[in-house]
Amino acid sequence: MRAVVFPAPGQVEVRQVPDPTPGSSDVVIRVSRCGICGTDLHIFRDEYASRFPLIPGHECVGTVVACGGDVSDLRVGQRVAVDPNIACGACSFCRERRFNQCQRWRVLGVTEAGAFAEYLVAPARVCFPVPDAIDDAAAAWIEPLACVAHAMARLPVATTARALVFGAGPIGLLLAQALRLRGALDVTIVERRANRLALARRLGLGAVVAADDDLAARLRDQAPEGFAIVADATGVPAVIEHALAYVRPAGHYLQFGVAPRDALVRWNPYDIFRREISIIGSFALNVTVPPAIAWLERGLIQTAALTSHTVDLDGFATALEAFAAGETLKVHVQP
Ligand SMILES: [Zn+2]
Ligand SMILES: [Zn+2]
């Protein structure tokens, strides 16, 4: 089969690789779509826990074309979305059902062969049937939306909460929608790029504020006491460093954006102490694929406007470059 391969950090090519064969509890999936994600870029730049060579890709939907002998819950022809995280099920974190903290954590497209390929092999237990109401274009959003659903599970959202999201990229716009869905009173979105500001306004998700010189004053106008929830969806240390200042006393800060692994920020511990700020990290997802599927099936989350480009395997390298330059929103690869 043909697949995108990162032979080494900073290198990308499309090459012929052996077709995957399923183990007894695996299925083989013909990949219909797989989204390019910020994590793929971090992997490409060797800013993540990956080994090379690697077939990347972890946000996929496809059709089962072969089942291992022990697979009884899936059948050939079934459309599935994949939770790329493969937890061991036996370590102390798995026993507490904190599978995303598994000590033997493996991830398709990160530590194992992923889905920017014609075929993917995955354990049947991480594959979820996709209802007919969710087309492939939306189904490729199930994994990122499940990460957002995990963040929502980590974050108490009061119905009086005013929320602030930094970053109107695809993930920031998903977070904003999920916060509304979870009952936040309103959401304010901060973004630097004009095209993303325009999109956030068009989606009507909440107040949209440009990240310019007037930012601090504009946010004080929006919420004089600060925001009960402030979420970072940029991963940019300079943004993160200033974000805590906008948290209301007794409020929550959510670190959702992926910052470079060695980045540091300066936060004032007295301020965190005095104003009782809760700082919450949210990593990947944890048993949150079902809510993501339910939200999409009922049309509660808009994704169509968040996919800006669709390419084939040969278009991957160019698309990754454009994605890195911030010229795209979500890019879907159709192998
Ligand atoms: Zn991702
Ligand atoms: Zn484990």
How would you characterize the largest beta sheet?
A: 7 strands, mixed
What CATH architecture of the largest domain do you see?
Alpha-Beta Complex
What is the string of SSEs from the N terminus onward?
Answer: EEEHEEEHEEEHHEHEHEHEHEHEHEHE
How much is the radius of gyration in Å? Answer: 20 Å
Poorly predicted regions: none
Task: Give the assembly state of these chains.
Answer: single chain
Rounded to the nearest angstrom, the distance between the terminal CA atoms is: 10 Å
Total DSSP helices = 11
Average pLDDT number: 96
CATH superfamily of the largest domain: Medium-chain alcohol dehydrogenases, catalytic domain
The CATH topology annotation of the largest domain reads as Quinone Oxidoreductase, Chain A, domain 1
CATH class call of the largest domain: Alpha Beta
Count of discrete domains: 2
Tell how many strands the DSSP assignment holds.
17
Q: Which ligands, by name, code or SMILES, are bound?
A: zinc ion
Shape: globular
Give the strand content.
Answer: 25-35%
Walk me through what this model shows.
The protein is an alpha/beta fold and 335 residues long. It has 2 domains: 2-146 and 285-333, Alpha-Beta Complex (Quinone Oxidoreductase, Chain A, domain 1), CATH 3.90.180.10; 156-281, NAD(P)-binding Rossmann-like Domain (Rossmann fold, 3-Layer(aba) Sandwich), CATH 3.40.50.720. It is built from 11 helices and 17 strands. The strands form 4 sheets. Strands 3, 4, 5, 8, 9, 16 and 17 form a 7-stranded mixed β-sheet that branches. Strands 12-11-10-13-14-15 form a 6-stranded parallel β-sheet, sandwiched between helices. The relative contact order is 0.16. The model has no long low-confidence stretch (mean pLDDT 96). One zinc ion (ZN) binds at residues 37, 39, 58-59, 144. One zinc ion binds next to helix 2.
